[in-house]
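Run log, item B.
One chain of 234 residues. Sequence copied directly from the ordering sheet:
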Amino acid sequence: MTTITKGAALRIALAAKALEGVDARAFTVKLAERLGLPVTEDKLAAFTVADLKSMLTGEESLEPDVDMASIKLAVRYLWGENGDDSSVPKPESYAEGELPGSLRVAVASNSGDNLDGHFGSAPRFLVYQVGKTAIKLVDVRPTLIADEAEDKNVARAELINDCRIVYVQSIGGPAAAKVVRAGLHPVKVPVPVPAPEILAKLQAVLDAPPPWLAKIMGVEAASLARFAAEEEEA
């Protein structure tokens, strides 16, 4: 008798990848113990977020501190989702230099055009060009190929290293350090939000950027500019 069906094995493999730091083999064994053999697609389809959270808690080999966003994504994989999402918007045409003074920004996304992904587990990055007059989605980059790398966080950072900022729902300390080394500035937004909404807020301060954004853009911060003007008037 087959202990794990082929379809179930694929779902489990995708779910294990979504759980950063979790050993895939240990995860499979624990899941089989909980569901009973044989492990089938029907059994996985009935597995809940609460079930997975309970399975991970207290199991040292399974890393109990996995964030909730990753747990939810893993459960969606167990249910049969494969990372494809017909609601993901299509990139717009864009020519380099079309938006002078713009920034290229990545958004970790689990669904649609939402900023709702963990850096280490989101199935895709939405890449936007954010300028003073327009915001354009210029690329959608699946992360599956990056997850085949020896260090998937480094590979994910390299996947978007033409961007200056990456928005995430959450990111671990070691991963954040690798992102910074790749020349990216990570920004955490803990509550899921449509990407266009958060990018509109970024667009609104491009003319008078706060210090952290001014450093990225290579311009003078708004606060320093005001101080300089006051000095000239004195």
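Observations after the first pass:
- Strands lie at 103-109, 114-115, 124-130, 135-142, 165-168, 185-188, 193-194.
- The CA atoms of residues 90 and 140 lie 8 Å apart.
Flagged for discussion on Thursday.
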